[in-house]
Design brief:
By secondary structure, the chain is mostly helical. The chain is 68% helix and 0% strand.
C-alpha cells in the first residue's frame, strides 16, 4: 500500500504516467492550482509547502521502487516548483505565461548551482533543482514587474 501511495503522490495523481511531456503537464497542474487559489494566498502558500513537503517524502520512495535515478514519471517536483514560481505574482495572462516558460527553462537548463542539485540523490536531488528553478523564475518575475508601470 505504501508503494502505491508513493506512486500516486510522486506522479502527482498519475500525470507522470502521461507518455508525452509529463513535466510540462505537471507544471500546468501547478498553474491550475494557482488559478484556483490565487484569491486565497494563505491556502496557496500552505498548499505549496504541503506539495513540496510530500514531494520530499514520497519522490525518493518511488525512485527507489523504480530503481532509476530521478525517473521522468516523478513530477511532483514540477508541480511544487511551478507553484513556487507563481508565489505572490499578479494574476494575468502575460505573467502566467512568462512565469511558466521561465520555470520550464530553468528546470530544463539547470543553471549553476542548480545543476549540482541532482547529484544529491534521492528526494533531495529530485526536489531541489525544481525548487530552485521556481525560486529563480519567481525572483526574475518580481524584478521584471518592478519595471512595469503600475505593477511594481
Amino acid at each position: 500500500m505504501n508503494a502505491k501511495i508513493a506512486k500516486i503522490i510522486a506522479t502527482f495523481f498519475y500525470i507522470g504516467e502521461i507518455p508525452a511531456a509529463p513535466g510540462t503537464i505537471a507544471s500546468l497542474a501547478g498553474v491550475f492550482i494557482y488559478l484556483t487559489l490565487f484569491d486565497n494566498p494563505a491556502i496557496f502558500i500552505f498548499l505549496t509547502v504541503f506539495v513540496t513537503g510530500i514531494g520530499f517524502v514520497f519522490s525518493g520512495k518511488h525512485e527507489r521502487a523504480l530503481k532509476t535515478k530521478d525517473p521522468g514519471c516523478i513530477v511532483i517536483d514540477e508541480v511544487a516548483g511551478m507553484m513556487i514560481s507563481l508565489m505572490f505574482l499578479p494574476v494575468n495572462f502575460a505573467v502566467l505565461i512568462t512565469a511558466f516558460f521561465l520555470f520550464r527553462a530553468f528546470d530544463m537548463f539547470k543553471i549553476y548551482p542548480v545543476n549540482k542539485m541532482e547529484d544529491l540523490g534521492g528526494s533531495l536531488g529530485i526536489m531541489a533543482d525544481d525548487i530552485f528553478a521556481g525560486i529563480y523564475a519567481n525572483l526574475i518575475m518580481h524584478i521584471a514587474l518592478l519595471f512595469v508601470p503600475g505593477k511594481g
